[in-house]
Amino acid sequence: MESTKGKPASRSPKKPRLPNAFTSTLGVAILLATLFTAWTPNSLFASNLREQMRSILTPQPGPNAVTSPQPQLRIGIVAGHTGNDSGAVCLDENGQTDLTEVDVNLSIASLVRDSLMAKGYLVDLLNEFDTRLNGYRAVALVSIHNDSCEFINDEATGFKVAASLETRDVNRAQRLTACLTDRYQQITGLTFHANSITSDMTEYHAFSEIDPNTITAIIETGFLNLDRDILTKQTSRVAEGVTQGILCFINNESVLPTALPTLTP
User: Fold this and answer.
1) What is the domain extent for residue 109?
2) What is the pTM of this model?
3) What pLDDT score was predicted for residue 166?
């Protein structure tokens, strides 16, 4: 037997190391191969190539990644007559002021604002001639008013809704008025008093002050005479009717269209 004393121990041969330049070239080749595999016939333009390169090289969020919230929608609510005058004034049997329209309007408008804000919307509660109305931009603006304290006749009950006759987007304006009409009637049980809509509503001053792309409407939520109980004792119900009408419009809920009103003399 041959002696192994003094011979070096046997070792496995080392694998040759690839030069760094070769490694980099190989990585680029793999990346380009991936890119060309992802190409479609319409992606042979340089702009598409840059977009696909950016998509491949940009880290993508994992399933548990936190994403930025969607921008909140802004809604404007005008409390009719607030900051300007009392509106309609109701007198008691002694001729003393018993109730004012401005107080009713503000109570309803405040509840509408609170309800919409609780649902995550940005809401501006605006005065009648608020300086913020100039060029005001929002997904919708609704002005809340009420009708006369005087007894006119037994038919002077119910609500009215109108949009500007000069709106740029007739379809969206009709949709907002249709949503307000439908949801308010369902929730309050009051009837739509369409035959008493006048130019004071369709030519409401705010319609010409706000940004023309803001869809707007004015609602008179009732008559302060025959509808006084629901307006003052069930104010939250009245406000909910307005709120749901606005949400119907924003969420594109199902509703039958309502034509822009024909004015009474």
Assistant:
1) 75-250
2) 0.71
3) 81
